[in-house]
Amino acid sequence: MIFQAGDIAACFGAQPVSRMIEYGTASLLAPARLRLGPSHVAILCEYREAMRWVESTSLCRRSCLVQRRVVRGTQVHHPHERICDYVGNGGRVDVYRLSPIHRLSESESRLLAKILIEHFVRLGIDYDLGGALLAGTRILKWIRFLPGADLNQLFCSELLAAVLMRLGRLNHGNPTKYNPAGLLRVLVNQGTYQYEGPAVFANGPGVTRESFFKVQA
Fold it and tell me: 39-72: buried (b, 16+ CB within 10 Å) or exposed (e) per residue?
């Protein structure tokens, strides 16, 4: 798969914590592939002439390509490595892409990378564990008065929501209210994003090191 700037990776894990989040935020009224929503989301941007996977997490054991060490919070990775992390452990990754009328211009693509890398990753923005725990349940949906957004610590979907608001692809509001499933459901329902397909690099059910390098050759 050839990624585009602004693509969202919807990650479905096989670990107990991931399953808890997926079932805890399930909805029968959601679009078919999002009734059982993802436990994690990441966004793709072009940085140094290559597509990079940007996320906020506390569970990745790979070194961030920008900070050059294992970090907790906002970080940058090679897409194929993070996809392999999920697929290799029994999970899957779906890709959602901006619909044609919402695709990023070249200047917006550069702005996306600047926001993600310069304003979040290089500053070492920490992971928002408390927000992530609430996001993994239905509690956020029923809280009338959310705490004010704190962009000095972010969980995965909070990061994406804040960035998409800045780019005008999501209505402005408090990014804290979006869990991974809820964010994607809103983006798909309003027509901003559409399901592109499973994240695979070659003809086959998933990503392997062999299939990735076969495509790159």
Answer: bbbbbbbbbeeebbbbbbbeebeeebbbeeeebe
* Whole-number pLDDT of residue 1: 79
pTM given for the model = 0.85
CA distance linking residue 56 with residue 213, whole number of Å: 27
Share of the chain above pLDDT 70, in %: 80
Report whether 74 contacts 121 (CB < 8 A): yes
Measured torsion, CA atoms of residues 111, 76, 197, 191, in degrees rounded to the nearest 10: -30
pLDDT value, residue 190:
96
Pairing, β 40-47 against β 193-198 = unpaired
As a whole number of angstroms, the distance between CA 76 and CA 90 comes to 23
> Is residue 41 within 8 Å of residue 157, measured between CB atoms?
yes
For residues 75 and 55, give the distance between their C-alpha atoms in angstroms, rounded to a whole number.
6
Do the Cβ atoms of 179 and 136 come closer than 8 Å? yes
Amino acid identity for residue 89 in this structure: N
Q: What does the pLDDT read at residue 214? A: 37
Can you name the CATH fold of 8-216? endopeptidase fold (from Nostoc punctiforme) (3.90.1720)
Residue 202 pLDDT class (50, 70, 90 cuts): very low
